[in-house]
Amino acid sequence: MLNIGSIVLTVEDIDRAGSFWREALGYVNRGEPGDDWVILDPPDKAGWAAPGASLALSITGYPQHYPPRIHLDLYAEDQAAEVERLLAIGAREVDWDAYPEDADWIVLEDTEGNRFCVVDTGAFDRT
Fold this sequence. Notes:
This protein is an alpha/beta fold. It is 17% helix and 28% strand. It starts with 5 loop residues before the first strand and ends in a 7-residue tail after the last strand.
């Protein structure tokens, strides 16, 4: 059976992107970052094949595509507080006019222009 091991984001600046995502997710470097690659793991991940998706950052030289074909959904119990925190560490709001009236997510982008959504888990039906 397959599982997601790493999600790879294209970045322009490994240090800047690594700092953002470590702070945003509380992840840690798996090993010493290279000039063009770093893998970030959940802090309690027992090994590279253990459950829990890692986030890899890669400098590829390819331009960003808009809209991107893939993005992360980050779940938040306190969406407003998490959005405020993410903006304070370098995220940017995305001017996006396609929100439905009952949207439970907010679209942001990281320091490299990779988009992600902060989803309000309080909006989920818990039954």
